[in-house]
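Render this sequence as a predicted structure.
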Amino acid sequence: MTDLRHYLSLIKKSGELKTIKKCVSTKYEIAGITAKVDGSSAVLFENIMESDFNLVSNLVGTRKRFAQAIGSKEEKIHETVISAIKKAKKPKIISSGEFMENKSKNISIMPIVTHFEKESGPFITSSIAYVKNPETGEQNSSFHRMMPIDNTHFSIRMVEGRHLHRCFLDAKEHHEDLKIAITVGVHPAISIAGAYQAEWGKDEIDIANSLLGYKLTLAKLPYTGLHVPSGTEIVMEGKILQDKIHPEWMVEMLQTYDHHRSQPIFELDSLYYRNNPIFHDILSGFSEHRLLMGMPIESKLNGELKKTFPQIQQVSMTNGGCNWLHAVVQIKKKTNSDPKKIIKKTFESHRSLKQVTIVDEDIDPNNAESVEYAMATRFQADKDLIIIKNVRGSSLDPSSDQKNLKTTKMGIDATRSLLKRPEGFELAKIPKIDKINLKDYFK
């Protein structure tokens, strides 16, 4: 019930999984097929030229499949995620995981995909790292992409200041390598929790357990002593070396190339995998990547902002803003000062945001045409535009000051003015239009 195979069975029944039996290559071909399909369905590749493993992509490439992964409905995603965070609980520990069925010392048996022509190499893009917090002794789990260097080493991408990086610096200060575990191929609820940035000392796996109805179980690994989901397809354990680095560069969620970096090196101790293992690949910058990263933030914004402003109906991280840089906030406006206050608070709640647009309750925040309509008919640039200069922004935005991570942010009040006659903004409706079925007329 809590592994990847159960989820694949679920979406197969609902027609959301396509299977490809034709032989395909990990070099660009799998990435190309995934891009062509994009979010429309998940794709299972059963015949891979370079590996005996199967591979799946686009697991949560739509809000529908995202909702299926957490046992929710599309309109209830945020409520479900917020509730899971509040009710997070540690999973049970069992003696052995299903991933212990096979063991290897060679990472080349995995179908690691080469995605884009100018990346530094192939990358594992679904890898979740598990590490013990040096201050609390609790575990932490988070996404970190990995590039193979040889049969036992990867470069591992870490963002400065985040949990894994802080643990790495602590180990380095004590002249130690950092023991970690890596999972590939987990139930997407675990991935969704892993993409959430919990507070220091908190473990995202507890949130995953809540999303999975408290049925998740963990198994202990022999080398690191860390606990990972027992139904994981592929598990690696080893250590991040304290004094070695390797150059790499990759495509980020904006579908642009990040700048070249030198990253620490992970050294493999053992690789475990289930019989007939399923490798999970996430295509950077496409729908699954964006929803995995953006939806937990969208849930966070909905939860935090509604506490302060009950007039907020919903907050949407837009597709055009890569589900990361732009937000649209739908409100039931009470005063003309509401939008500017909400714009300020929204920027404070997610510092990567570059643009916030406020719309009325009759505007669909998930429909770009509807939002543009609001701007066309309810927005005046000299009164309703807020410009915030030289502030902290997203490191992903190539147009920003990348050295100092500074950007300019824009807030747009695209709501109806309460000082003007309301009839001038009312959207005209045709009575009983919802009851008309065109099939009854065109036969």
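Summary. The chain has eleven helices and 20 strands. The first helix runs from residue 4 to 13.
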